[in-house]
Amino acid sequence: MLKFRRFFLASGILMLASELWKQYTLTFLLGGGNYNWWYFPFQLCSIPMYVCLLLPWVRSRCVQQVLTAFLVDFGMLGGIFAFFDTSGMHYDYFPLTVHSFAWHILLIILGLAAARSDQAASSWSDYAGAAALYLTCCLTATGLNLTLDHLGTINMFYINPDYPMTQKIFSDIAAVLGDTAGIFIYIGATLAGAAIFHFLWRFSTSRAL
């Protein structure tokens, strides 16, 4: 774990700097000084930035493993599946499109690096901790959605009940079962997908041993 701390910290700083540039560009160069809450940095694919900034300073071994598991299970999941529907990664301003693609590629690299850095974090208890962190983020996102909704369009984690589901497949489910059911099925599917990633990680770790 120690040999990867500098990598995670450098990645977190790079992501933070690029996110600040993105927010400035969207607000002032493209938005005429008006902030667009749709781009507030609290999506699933934003959380690894905060994890990378925090991880090198954490001394609790248990918390370290949970954060590592989050990068592998949920961070890499978000990075990979973003490429199944890249519509949200394209901007009218080409440098922002490059930033979006580079960001999601970095999420995959971070997940692979995390898997290599701490094989002990591949236990199911660490998946449970990462899942709890994900659900906490979902609750926080819901709070942001409901609290800041009056300021503009905001849909953190794509689970704002005031907007129809936009994610592929889940939008079709929501059209049939309703948005609330679609949101819960989406969250459940994310948990299941992360569990599959974790199982593959555990399997590869056991084979390596």
Descriptive overview:
The chain has 209 residues and is mainly alpha-helical. Helix content is 69%, strand content 0%. It has helices at 2-29, 47-54, 61-81, 94-117, 124-148, 170-177, 179-208. The chain starts with a helix and ends with a helix.
Low-pLDDT segments: none
What is the helix content?
55-70%
Number of DSSP strand runs: 0
The average pLDDT score comes to 95
Strand content: under 5%
Distance between the first and last residues' Cα: 17 Å
SSE order, one letter for each helix or strand: HHHHHHH
Major sheet size, sense and barrel closure: none
- Broad structural category: mainly alpha
Shape call: globular
Which value, in Å, is the CA radius of gyration? 17 Å
Summarize this, please?
This protein has 209 residues and is mostly helical. It is 69% helix and 0% strand.
What keyword list fits this structure?
209 residues; globular; mainly alpha; 7 helices
Spell out the blueprint of helices and strands.
Elements (H helix, E strand, L loop, with lengths): L1 H28 L17 H8 L6 H21 L12 H24 L6 H25 L21 H8 L1 H30 L1
Helix pairs in contact: 1-2, 1-4, 3-4, 3-5, 3-7, 5-7, 6-7
